[in-house]
Structure formats: structure tokens, C-alpha cells
Amino acid sequence: MSSLVAIIPILIVTLSALAAMLAEAFREPGERMPAGLGLIGLVGAILASIFLWDREATAFGVVLADNFALFVNIVLGIVGILTLLMSSDVIDRERLPAGEYYALMLFAIAGMMLMASATDLLVIFLALEVFSLAVYVLTGIRRASAAGAEAAFKYFLLGAFSSAFFLYGVAFTFAVTGSTRLDRVGAELARQANEPGILLLIAVGLLMVGFAFKVSAVPFHMWTPDAYQGAPTIVTGFMSTAVKAAAFAAFVRVFASTLEPLQQQWAPLLWAIAVATMIGGTVVGVVQTNVKRMLAYSSIAHAGYLLVGLVATNPSRPVGQAAVLFYLLSYAVTNVGAFGVVAMLGTGERPHDELDDFRGLWQRRPGLAGLMTVFLLSLGGFPPTAGFIGKWYIFNAAVQEGQYWLAIIGVLTSVVSVFFYVRVIVMMYMTEEAAEAPPTPALSIVAAAGLTFAVIAVFYLGVLPTRVLDLAAQSVATIF
Amino acid sequence: MPLLSLTVFLPLLGAVLLPVVGRERDRLRQASAGLDEARRAESDRLVRYLALGVSLAVFVLTLVLWAGFDSSASAPEFQFVEQHAWIPAFGISYHVGIDGISLLLIVLTGFLTPLALLGSWGQIERKVAAFSFFMLALESAMLGVFVSLDLFLFYLFWDAMLIPMYFLIGIWGYERRIYAAVKFILYTMAGSVLMLVAILGLAYLNYAASGEWSFNLLDLYGLELPAQTAMWFFLAFTVAFAIKVPLFPFHTWLPDAHVEAPTAGSVILAGVLLKMGTYGLVRFSFPLFPEAAVTFAPYLAGLAVVGIVYGALVSMVQPDLKKLVAYSSVSHLGFVVLGICAMNTQGVEGAVYQMLNHGVSTGALFLIVGMLSDRRHTRLIAEFGGLKKVMPRLSAAFLLITLSSIGLPGLNGFIGEFLILVGAFRWDPRFAAIAASGVILSAVYMLWMFQRVNYGPVTNDKNQNLPDMSRREGWVLVPAIVMAVVMGVVPGPFMRAMAPAVDRIVQRVGQHRAAVVQQIPAPAVTIERETPRP
């Protein structure tokens, strides 16, 4: 029984997903889907995570609800709540299958929470598959859309491919250390670290490739722009934040703790990936004319900043890990908000996500334009928003570890990225409206509440970050 | 009472409340429905007066700060200090305070913002509430830059300032406004992010040395850095500031931004924003890294004198009034940098004084150019001519401001340039000699421009019936002219306010000079005689 304590958040989300499926089964045609079920589940999961704080509960020896996992749970819960709030408008407008949509989203979140708290490589793999499958389906949930189907298929193929890499990595790790439990693997590696065998290096490399795929780091990012552009916008917002949060949580746990003895081996490789990701994401982002695709490349670049935090981890001074956690949260609220605004502009016929669709938005929808501006400036790292503090923390960690070059490349690429964020602002504020302005659907109160919540979070984290920074630091203090 | 915080955040508060009062939403709806023009005009008027009222209140507050400022030598270095822990995990605190230099610069900011707002009434006719919002938000950020004593806080204001300025140029500017706005934001940001890395590095080295996290400027002043590191950090800081100043060859954003910005934007850009660069040199680059500063000072001064001559020569051939004034800023700010590089009492006092002068004179010049362009919708010098006959009062104001910009004795520009040249001469006469030629050149291009615009017959029929200075324009220009005269005749109060701060900075850097100077070949001519202070 005590084992169940550690997985209460995951259980709550799973139960609400099951409830959503049941509700769908008994739903009369034309009856609205009770979206509140998902919200109750997510709020419950967040509350449970808060109660579990500092308890270090474990379950079955493979799941550990330490503060690190709980922090990620809360991030995932917030992303889920924001997404659900903004979803009902989109579901009505695009006639998405509501029951499947809610159930899949909740299952995905349950899988992600499991991924963040798993302490066994096989359970990590299991969790990875649980949420990946759900997200593949969500990507293609617009059955009539060819682009959606293509995106889902691409995502599925490459995702399956990367899962294979990861599984191979697990197998090699098992071959070398005789276990898949992270603590035992870590202990064994500490003994072998002085002269790591070739098998061990292959194992580390394969695991890295698997994670790099999931966080869409260059050069394993090819699926990202297509999948992000083809998926319904609201799903893209979810994918680009929640998937990244879950994958980074496991990435940090495995690499910064278990594989820490081998840091000298993997850090240079990860350094190169981080640099390639930051540069690749921003440089290619500059030439995009579709806002969704631009935000896709921007999310690649942000994965690069997160990798900087991972490279700058240090077991005796876990600043890098804490920076990653804080960045995940600040990036999540910002990016969900940005995609949310884009989603709100879409109509049933057309997504309205081209740069030209934002022309003169300020005249038509001053509120949405203002929100979008805040989110874009936060993505660009301007004070006083969450993005600024996040970047500050990440580069602070890099400088502390003597990684001046990473910090310099990071800040310079973030200047380049400002160029494409600012381009959207130019369109919204500084160009005249197109002759025939695209119709903008009305915003429901629920969706407006979601966006408002996101923008408050962006400013809260940007102006009064102390409390969350402390929580992030606490979370990694006991990270195993 | 936290007077300083009140001063900094009052404009922001006003900015946030404006749209509420101005019923911007109503207005936009009406605009889209195309009805009720009169109510819209009334709402605009209210917003304009309100914004002006807020900015005047801020000006009064800055004067109150001046009145309460103790400028005796025994007074504490920074006054009106407020310090509250903000992000203790990083050692970041909300720490503000002013010394004489900051004081004068915030007074300048408070003085210019209402003028810019009032001066823009003729030009800004659409989205008035949003315009006022960005102007006031900008004022808050600028004041914040000048009062921050915590490097994090400083960087925050420094970066935040870009956003309202970007919108001001991009929405209300002239034809190429988008290009100018994007260039402005990217160029300035590219410079400042390296400063961010240097700030982080500095704080970390301080942590390594003392075991305490701190971004407090006063803690970091005492930090001993390895020479190599100090050099890199100095360069990172200085490049950020040099772009803002702008020092030749980092000036290419300036003509675009100044020319394309609306009048109010140009006034604030030239009047206050450029000073943030020179202020940064005085407050951060030089005292934080004195050894590196002494090593690099001759190079910086070299760029400064190149800028003085280059800016003047380019000004001379400009067909566009606004561009001419913009390039003249490159030249004038070169003087300021030269004075700072000299790092002696006269040089730095002159530099600070010249910052104020340039704010008043060039701000007023941009206002006048804006008035001409509001009337004729062109800024080409060739389009004007003989304006003295058509509008004698505006021409008279124009003349006074032109003379103050040139540095005619009795007006403000003279004192600043003179002190800088004295300071530069004591340091290295070669720089002073070249810079002095800039004084002559500035007379050439300014007077020639003035002559072409105002004297001679009225060549263009469109100029025959231009209205003279209106009462509102009088309210804009007269304060500036009065300031130009006052600062030219009674520099005492300004000098007294800044003297202790300048002495401290010169001393702080000077302690390190002796050590470095021995390694550098001495200049060919050395002046032993103490130049009397005017």
C-alpha cells in the first residue's frame, strides 16, 4: 500500500483519463464533453504532488517521487490545465473527437509524470512509449487533414526509430552493469569510470541519441517542424512543452546523476549538440514565414538552451539541474501561451498561422495581440518576463562551470532569435491590415482565462521568481 | 518615503492606468465602426493631458530629489538609497541610489520627457493612448537605468528600455520605420548580451573570492580580477556602451533610428538614450575594471576623436535636416567619450556637463526639425530657405539652439566642450588638438544649415504662408532655451552636484593608473602645470 503513495499523482491523472473515456462512451450525440473531468484530475495531481513534497516516497523500487519528479509533475499539470482550458474552443471549431482528445491528452500526461519519476531505465522506456503513442495520435487527430496525417506518420516513424535507439542503449547498459535500475547502474559505473569500455560508451551514446530525438536536439530534430506544423495548433503547444519537460526530466536524471561518473565522456558530445541545436534552431527559424513553423524552430533553439543547463551540471553544486527545471517551467507557460494565441486565431477552414495572417492584428484584436507580444518577448528573453529569468539562470549556470563559450553562443543566438519573434510583432503592430482581413472567431471565457493565467505566470516568474527558484533549487538538492 | 522608487515607477503606473482612463478599447471599437469622431478626439485630449501631467509630476519629483541631495564632500557617495532583498538565491537585491551624476541625468530625463510629449501633439494623431503608454514606460526604464546600483537590476532596465523604444519607432515613425526599429533592437541587443555574460562572470568571480553571491555594484567595485579576465570583461561592457553612445564605428544604427523615429522618439533617443552609454562607461566600465580601462583608454579616445571629425564631416553633406542632427550627435558624443577617457576631474566633469548640454540642445533641435516637418512634411534642407521672414519667432529659437549646440560662449555647449578639451589636453594633447577641430567643424555645418534654412529669399512658394511658432510650441521650446542659457551662465549648481561623484570616480580609476602608466610609453608632450578650474 505504501508503494502506491508515490504514484498518487500519476494515478489521479490516469483515473481522470479513464473517466473521460467512460464519459465519451455514454455521451449522447450532440452532448458536450465534460472537460472539467480532466481539470479536476490535473488539479488533483498538482495537489497530490504538493502533499508529497519532501516525502521521498518510492514505489516498487522503480518509481521515486522525489522533489525533482514532483516539480516536473507540477509543470506538467500546469501545461495540461492551460492546454485543456484553451482546447474546448478549438475542439468545437475544428470538430475534433472530444472524448478521444481529452483521454489521450490525460494519458500522455500520466505517461510523462511516470517518466519524470522513473528510476529504472525500462520504466523510463515504458513511460516514453505511453506518452509518445498518445501524442502520435493527437498529432493526427484531425482525420480529414492530409498535413496532419503526414505529420503524425513522420512523427511516429522517427519516434519509433528513436525508441529503438533508446532501447538498445538500455540493453547495452544492462550488458555492462548487470542492471537497469539507475542506482545500481550508477554504482557500477562509478567503479568502471576510470577505464570505460567500448560497450559502455556505445550505451551512453545510444541513450543520448534516444533522448536527443525526444527533446528535438539538432541533428535529431528533423521530425519537429513537420510534426509541429501539421498537428492542431493547440496540440503543438502541448507537444512542444510537455514532451520536452518529461524528456528533459529523464535526460537530467539519467545523465546528470546516474551517468555522472562518465561526465568527461559525454559532456563534450552534449556540448556540441547544444551548440548545434542553438545555432540550428535560430538560424533556420529566421527564414520561416509560417508562425507555427517558426515557433517549432524556436522550440528547437530553446531545447539548446536547456541542453546548456545539462552540460553545466555539477554533482557538488546542482545549479545546472535547477536552471533546467526553472527554464522548463518558464518556457512551458510562455510557449503554451504563444501557441494558444495562434490556436485562437484559427478557424475551422484554415489555421491562420501564416505570418501575413497576423497583419494588423492589433487593430482587430488588441487583447490577443498584446498577449502574443508578451509571450514572444518572453521567448526572446526580455525582462521583466519569465524568459529573461530562465535564460539568466541557465547562462549563470554555464558561467559558473566555466562554460563561457556556451554562454556566449547562447546569448548571441538569442539575439538572432529576437529577429523572428520581433517579426511577428512587426506584423501585428506596424503593418496595415490586409484588405480582406481574415475573420477572427470569438474567444470563450474559458480560453481567455487560460491565456490570462499564462500571462500572469509569465510576469510572476519574471518579476518575483524567488519562490519558484528556491523550489527548483530544493528539487535538485536531493535528486538522485 | 521611498522617493527614488516613486520617481522611477510613477511613469509606469501612469502608463498602466492611461488606457483605462482613455478608454482605449472604446476608442478602438469606435474607430473600427467609424463613428463618434468627436468623442474620440476628446478621449485623446484627456490622455495627452494626463500623460503630460504624469511626466511633469515626475519632473517635479526629480527636482525634489535634487533639493534634498547633499553635495558636500563628506556626504555619502550614494543617497536616497533603497535596498531590499529580491532574489536572495542569486544575491540580487532591489538596490537603487543616486550620486551627483545619476541625479543630473534623471533630472534631464524628467525635463525632456514632458517636452517630448508636448512636442509630439502636432504629430501623433493616431493611437494616442498607446503612444503615451510607451513614452511613459520608456521614461520608467530610463530612470531605472540611471538609479540602479545592482547589476542585475541595471541590466533589466537596460534591456527593458528597448521594447517601448522599438514600438515608438516602429509604429509612429516615418517611411522606413520598420527597418529602423528592427535594426535598433537587434543592434543594441547584440551589444548588450555580451555584457550579460560579463556580469554573470563578474558575479561568479566575486562569489569565488568572497563566498557570497552579490550583484551589488559597491561590492563588485572592490573585486580584484586577473588582468586578462578584467580585459575581456571591460571589452564586453564597453562594446555594449559604445554601441549605445554610439562610438565610431558602432554608430550605424543611429542615423536610421533617429531619422525614422517620430519627433518624441528622436528627442528621447538623442537626449537620454545615448547618455545611457556614456553613463555606463563612467559608472561601470571604468571604475569596475580600472586597469583595463587605463590600458584601453587611448584606443577609445582614438575612436572618439575619429567620431568627432567623421560625424562632423558627414553632417556637413547631409541634405536631410534630421540626418544632419543625428550625425552631429555622433560628433558631440565623441567629445563626451574623450572627456571620460581622459579620466581627470576636468575631463569627466566636462563629459557629464556635455551629456546634459547635448540632451537639451539636440533634444530641442529635434523638436524644431519636427515642427518644420509637421508643417511641410519634408525634412530636406533644400525645400526650405528664408524662413526667418515667414516665421521670425521660430527662427529666433532655432538660432539660439543652433548656437548652443555649436558651443558659443555664454551658452551651455561652450562650458562642456571647454572642460573636455582642457581635460584631454592635460592627458594627451594630441587628442585635444584633433578634437578641437571638431569644434570648428560643428560651427561650419550648423551655421551653414541654419543659413540655408532661414536666410535669403523665400525660394519655395509652399513656405510663404507657414504659421509661426504656436503657443504650444512656445511652451516646448522656451524651457529648452532657458535651460541652454542658464547652463551657460551659471554652471555652478550643476558642477557642485556632480563634483564629489566625479572626484570619487577619478580617484577610483586613478589609483590604478600609476601602475599601468609605467608600462605604456609616455606621450611625447607632458603638461605639468595645473590648469585652473573655471
Topology:
The complex is a heterodimer of chains A (480) and B (534).
Chain A: H1 2-5, H2 8-25, H3 36-52, E1 57-59, E2 63-65, H4 67-94, H5 98-117, H6 121-139, H7 146-177, H8 182-192, H9 198-214, H10 223-230, H11 233-258, H12 263-286, H13 291-311, H14 319-345, H15 361-364, H16 366-379, H17 386-400, H18 404-430, H19 445-463, H20 466-477
Antiparallel strand pairs in A: 1-2
Chain B: H1 3-22, H2 24-33, H3 37-67, E1 79-87, E2 92-98, H4 100-119, H5 128-147, H6 151-160, H7 162-172, H8 177-210, H9 217-221, H10 227-244, H11 253-260, H12 263-288, H13 290-316, H14 321-342, H15 345-376, H16 387-390, H17 392-406, H18 412-427, H19 429-454, H20 471-489, H21 492-517
Antiparallel strand pairs in B: 1-2
Describe the structure.
- The complex is a heterodimer of chains A (480) and B (534).
- Chain A has a two-stranded antiparallel sheet.
- Chain A has one domain (2-477).
- Chain A has 480 residues and is mainly α.
- Chain A has helices spanning 2-5, 8-25, 36-52, 67-94, 98-117, 121-139, 146-177, 182-192, 198-214, 223-230, 233-258, 263-286, 291-311, 319-345, 361-364, 366-379, 386-400, 404-430, 445-463, 466-477; strands at residues 57-59, 63-65.
- In chain A, helix 3 (36-52) runs antiparallel to helix 4, helix 6 packs antiparallel against helix 11 and helix 13 (291-311) runs antiparallel to helix 18 (404-430).
- Chain A is globular, with a radius of gyration of 21 Å.
- Chain B has 534 residues and is an all-alpha fold.
- Chain B has 21 helices and two strands.
- Chain B has helices at residues 3-22, 24-33, 37-67, 100-119, 128-147, 151-160, 162-172, 177-210, 217-221, 227-244, 253-260, 263-288, 290-316, 321-342, 345-376, 387-390, 392-406, 412-427, 429-454, 471-489, 492-517, and strands at residues 79-87, 92-98.
- A two-stranded antiparallel sheet of chain B has the order 1-2.
- In chain B, helix 12 (263-288) runs antiparallel to helix 15.
- The two termini of chain B are 38 Å apart.
- The A-B interface holds A 363-364, 366, 377, 382-384, 388, 392, 395-396, 399-400, 404, 407-408, 411-412, 414-415, 418-419, 422-423, 425-426, 429-431, 465-466, 469-470, 473 and B 24-25, 28, 31-32, 86-90, 152, 155-157, 159-160, 162-163, 166-167, 170-171, 177-178, 181-182, 185-186, 189-190, 193-194, 196-197, 200-201, 203-204.
